[in-house]
Amino acid sequence: MRILKIKPEHKPERADIPDTLEAMQEVVDGYIQAVYPFEEPVALICNEEGKLNGLPLNRALWDEDGNLYDIISGTFFLCAAPPDTESFQSLSEERLLYYEERFRYPEMFLKVNGKLIGRSTKDESPSNERSSLPWSGNGGRERSRPQKP
Questions:
Q1: C-alpha to C-alpha distance for 133 and 107, rounded to whole angstroms
Q2: Which tens digit of pLDDT belongs to each residue from 21-76?
Q3: Can you say how many angstroms the Cα of residue 20 is from the centroid of all Cα atoms in its chain?
Q4: pTM of the model
Q5: How many CA atoms lie within 13 Å of 94's alpha carbon, on the beta-carbon side?
Q6: In whole angstroms, how far apart are CA 61 and each of 37, 57, 73, 84?
Q7: How far apart are CA 76 and CA 85, in angstroms?
Q8: Which of 99, 122, 123, 101 shows the shortest CA–CA distance to 43?
Q9: How many CB atoms sit inside 10 A of residue 60's CB?
Q10: How would you write the chain as a 3-class SS string?
Q11: What are phi and psi of 69, to 5 degrees?
Q12: Which of 44, 102, 108, 139 is the most buried (most CB within 10 A)?
């Protein structure tokens, strides 16, 4: 299965893994949790206990208004999640390219006055900073719309 693997503080990397629970758990270093924050049939597979185990913060999930609503901890990967099947599948070349760009730059996070602030490491300009509503820790249950390039 062709996936896009995203480690904290790294650019995304393509990987081929067997379509097994064990292989998926090895990528995220623990039990898996599937989150569906995109409108496309793409699953974000992360470590179910990543935050509880103190894994490093990785990438933010943003709502359609640009507000940070969750942060994925630890290494995660993206794969196709067709609605007509219960199994995960390889990402298409088009989706690999799109999500490589979307997650290209690692992010940094700060908690300031009860709000989380996320900032891309792409550049150091203040306009590159986005902030959140007060932290709700909703576990990625909301959906966000990816911004098309």
A1: 17
A2: 999 999 999 999 999 999 999 999 999 999 999 999 999 998 888 888 899 999 99
A3: 20
A4: 0.78
A5: 4
A6: 8, 12, 11, 25
A7: 21
A8: 99
A9: 22
A10: CEEEEECCCCCCEEEECCCCHHHHHHHHCCCEEEECCCCCCEEEEEECCCCCCCCCEEEEEECCCCCEEEEEECCEEEEECCCCCCCCECCCHHHHHHHHHHCCCCEEEEEECCEEEEEECCCCCHHHEEEEEECCCCCCCCCCCCCCC
A11: -120, -15
A12: 44
Contact 144, 64 (CB under 8 A): yes
Q: Report yes or no: 144 and 62 within 8 Å, Cβ to Cβ.
A: yes
User: For residues 82 and 67, what is the distance between their CA atoms, to the nearest angstrom?
Assistant: 27
Q: Residue type at 10?
A: H
Residue in this structure with the two tokens 């990967």, named with its chain if needed = 77
Q: Would you state the structure tokens that stand for residue 28, as one six-digit string? A: 């995220």
For 35, the token pair is: 């989150």
Length of the chain equals 149
| Look-up of token digits 């932290």 | 135
Structure tokens at 60: 């933010």
